[in-house]
Specification:
The complex is a heterodimer of chains A (459) and B (250). In chain A, 53% of the residues lie in helices and 10% in strands. By secondary structure, chain A is an alpha/beta fold. Chain A has three domains: 130 residues, Orthogonal Bundle (Fumarate Reductase Iron-sulfur Protein, Chain B, domain 2), CATH 1.10.1060; 245 residues, Rossmann fold (3-Layer(aba) Sandwich), CATH 3.40.50; 59 residues, no CATH class. Chain A has a six-stranded parallel beta sheet, sandwiched between helices. In chain A, strands 8-5-6-9 form a four-stranded mixed beta sheet. Chain B has 250 residues and is α/β, with parallel strands linked by helices. Chain B has two domains: 113 residues, 3-Layer(aba) Sandwich (Rossmann fold), CATH 3.40.50; 116 residues, 3-Layer(aba) Sandwich (Rossmann fold), CATH 3.40.50. The chains are: A alpha/beta (459), B alpha/beta (250). At the A-B interface, helix 1, helix 2, helix 18, helix 19 and helix 20 of A face helix 1, helix 2, helix 3, helix 4 and helix 9 of B.
Chain lengths: 459, 250
């Protein structure tokens, strides 16, 4: 679970205190953005695909109740048990109920941001069920007792040396052996043991298909397939926005997803699940947990189009230089900075301001969510909720007043130009403008208005 | 053609020479330029911090000051983008604003799209290497260039107009349009991050071998300029109108 008292400015400053590590983090993630560019540029129809994906998702969201009912009906006809969870607590209770009724001791999980959102792992662990995350990156952060720092690359904040040390302690690998292949093999051997001894498997859902009642899970490691084929019980947790109407629409999204996420043409595995294997059971838990409320919001409903590719994080100059741990919500970066504040503006207000409004996120987004605008719209809610710091609020109120009184505006500008140059350096150096190594601008003798007035007088 | 000159508040106080260069440039192309003295701030700082009331009042005020001009022109992509893209948050149903909106231009847009200039008012010789700084709002809201995220043919307004300058060498930094980290009040909300972004950006501009960082938004140049001065670097920020009027070589 994530500490939601994190405030982005302080957390980012702490992250940047180790500039070398921060530079490495920035470059490692920028490299993924470049891979995305290389893949996207090979498709002449890239922009048309984005528009198509946007349209399909927008259409689905506009009739979500119908599609959800259709999905439930088809899934039930396939023999799948469908559950509805209004919130995180209900989701966890349902999953625990299924597992407890079948005396499940060990659950293997493939990647699911929804279960992170719901805090499923601690919920089950407190009730005596062992949970093993089987995506390599997820497994690494689980062993470190950390939340994921990225939604697609959960351990992107770690260097291989750190992983080697972790595996040495937790899995007994050789000390100092940093070879990624060696470490991956060690993790695989360890996970294989867990797959074979688990009583149930849980997956997230990338796409739910209304016309078939099937769910699609995209992974690169095949862990979802092992986790659902070995144990007899498969639970799929799905946010209610994951639906697309028809199977024929899926190709639009699978073409965009991996290219946007990691710069690969496609994920290694795109697995379709329609029913339990013989003798097994399959459950789908459809989760609302605040999504209906977002769907009802004019300003923010577009955020439900998200397919969780993480491209907005990879392009975000703020995310790359502050890491996922600087954000108070479990989903970091641009998309998290609209979803978190939608959930609770007071708790997550600093996320709405952790943005230079450069707009790159909205442009990489494969479903064209107006991410950077949503962040600014959340700032209105922060203002109205009293979540803007008092000092800043007073400054803006002064600005508001001066804007209406240009003579005073000009006077205060003039005072600034005359006073700033004679301020003691010790004072200006501590200002928010200067404290991180940025000098104040030189203060010109005259303002433009003064120069213009003088020129008019001369003419 | 009566052009209302919109000089953003911080340009008025801190970069008056950019305002003067803009004025001279417009006049030398034969525009009748009027500068309404009662202008103050377009309201972007309020809007970006959620103060809808303050932002709305500023938007109304801006509209009433500028509505009667044939065109409104400013030397700042970000302030223009606020007027043309975000006043709708407050004035969607305001007919004065709706008729003003299509008449508001950033200076380079105005020269290229309205005046359709094919040469400079007087020849400019600027025998220097410059690295282009694509400011984000100019880039992604005003389409000053093709943003690197979009898979569309490349174009760049700044490069196109700098091709009219003699002797100049125009370069592009690695990560051709990464944000410099200014971001309005972001720069003081998150000074460490903002400065780190600026340092990285400046290093990328320096790596081109350029002597100048040239852009169309004084705010980004102010931010990078502050870091450059603090670090005692040699590269200098320069607003594009200063080159186009032949003032930049000083």
């Amino acid at each position: 679970m994530k500490d939601d008292s994190i405030r982005h400015p302080e957390a980012a400053a702490a992250f940047l205190a180790d500039r070398e590590q921060a530079r490495w983090h920035d470059s490692a993630i920028w490299w993924v953005r470049q891979k995305r560019d290389a893949q996207a540029s090979q498709l002449p129809e890239w922009e048309a695909l984005r528009e198509l994906a946007r349209t399909i998702k927008a259409h689905t969201l506009s009739r979500l109740d119908d599609y959800l009912r259709q999905f439930e009906e088809k899934a039930a006809a396939n023999g799948v048990t469908v559950h509805w969870a209004a919130d995180a607590e209900e989701h966890n209770r349902i999953v625990h109920g299924i597992l407890a009724a079948r005396q499940v001791k060990k659950l293997v999980k493939s990647k699911s941001m929804l279960t992170e959102e719901c805090g499923l792992n601690p919920y089950l662990e407190q009730r005596g069920i062992e949970v093993i995350d089987t995506d390599l990156g997820e497994r690494i952060v689980q062993l470190r007792h950390e939340p994921p720092s990225h939604i697609v690359m959960p351990a992107i904040h770690l260097k291989k040396e750190q992983i080697s040390e972790l595996f040495h302690q937790e899995l007994g690998t050789e000390a100092g052996n940093n070879d990624p292949t060696y470490l991956t093999h060690a993790a695989r051997a360890n996970l294989r043991e867990h797959f074979l001894t688990a009583d149930a498997g849980l997956t997230g859902v990338n796409f739910g298909i209304a016309e078939t009642g099937g769910v699609v899970v995209c992974t690169n490691e095949g862990n979802a397939d092992l986790g659902t084929s070995l144990p007899p019980i498969h639970i799929a947790s799905m946010g209610l926005e994951k639906l697309i109407p028809k199977l024929e629409h899926l190709g639009v999204f699978t073409r965009l997803l991996a290219r946007s996420a990691i710069g690969s043409p496609v994920t290694t595995y795109t697995s379709h699940f329609h029913q339990a294997r013989p003798g097994g059971e399959m459950h789908i838990v459809i989760v609302d947990n605040g999504r209906s409320e977002i769907l009802g919001s004019d300003d923010f409903f577009q955020s439900l189009r998200c397919i969780r590719c993480g491209a907005c994080m990879n392009t975000c100059p703020v995310y790359r230089r502050s890491s996922g741990f600087s954000y108070s919500y479990i989903i970091p970066g641009p998309i998290g900075s609209t979803l978190g504040p939608s959930r609770d503006i007071r708790k997550h207000a600093s996320m709405a301001f952790a943005c230079s409004t450069c707009g790159s996120c909205s442009n990489v987004c494969p479903v064209k969510i107006n991410l950077h605008e949503q962040l600014v719209l959340h700032r209105k809610r922060a203002w109205d909720a009293g979540a803007v710091p008092t000092g800043k609020k007073m400054g803006l109120m002064a600005m508001r007043f001066l804007t209406r009184h240009p003579a005073l505006f000009d006077l205060s500008g003039k005072v600034m130009r005359k006073v700033v140059p004679i301020l003691p350096e010790g004072l200006t150096r501590q200002s928010a403008w200067s404290r991180a190594g940025r000098d104040l601008p030189e203060m010109p003798e005259q303002s433009f208005k003064e120069m213009y007035r003088r020129r008019e007088e001369k003419n | 053609m009566r052009v209302g000159l919109f000089i953003p508040c911080y340009v008025n106080e801190l970069f008056p020479h950019v305002g003067m260069a803009t004025l001279e440039l417009l006049e030398s192309y034969g525009c009748e330029v009027v500068f309404p003295m009662e202008q103050s701030c377009c309201g972007q700082p309020m809007a970006n911090n959620g103060d809808s009331k303050g932002a709305c009042a500023a938007a109304q005020r801006f509209t009433s000051i500028f509505r009667d001009f044939d065109y409104v022109v400013a030397p700042s992509g970000s302030c223009v983008a606020h007027v043309t893209h975000h006043f709708d948050w407050y004035l969607a149903g305001d007919s004065d604003y709706q008729s003003l909106k299509p008449k508001v231009f950033e200076i380079i847009e105005f020269l290229q799209d309205v005046l359709k200039v094919e040469g400079l008012p007087k020849p400019v010789y600027f025998p220097h290497k410059v690295s282009i700084h694509q400011s984000c709002h100019g880039l992604r809201e005003l389409h000053h260039a093709a943003p690197s995220e979009l898979m569309i043919p490349f174009h760049s307004r700044l490069e196109r107009i700098l091709a009219l300058v003699d002797g100049i060498t125009v370069l592009k930094p690695e990560r051709r349009d990464e944000c410099c980290g200014f971001g309005g009040t972001f720069c003081v909300d998150e000074p460490e991050l903002s400065t780190a972004m600026g340092e990285d950006r400046i290093a990328q501009h320096e790596a081109t071998g350029a002597e100048f960082i040239v852009g169309a938004d004084p705010s980004c140049l102010m931010h990078m300029g502050g870091i450059i001065r603090h670090k005692g670097r040699n590269i200098r920020p320069l607003h594009i109108v200063e080159i186009l009027t032949g003032r930049g070589a000083t």
